[in-house]
Amino acid sequence: MRVKPLTVSVMPTFYCESRCEYCYLGSLRNNTMFLDIKMLNDRLMEIVKHGYYIERVEAYGGDITELPETYINGVVDTLLEYSECLVYTGG
User: Fold this and answer.
1) What per-residue confidence (pLDDT) applies to 32?
2) Measured at the alpha carbon of residue 86, what is the angle toward residues 76 and 14, in degrees to the nearest 5?
């Protein structure tokens, strides 16, 4: 099986307290839900099982710095199991 490199984009949350008028998320910024870490791990594992090599993971979306530190650490730890990761924040 040939390994195919892939960049994966992950949005842990839409939530953000900033009210930037140019934000592409619009009213989605009010959604306080966030991505389940087990589901994230399952999806990344599924990608690998289908013959892809996760070359890079980018996390973006709402401001993840407003989420609990334990959750952020869990997301980053999960991402690092598969690849280097780059996290974009509003700040």
Assistant:
1) 86
2) 70
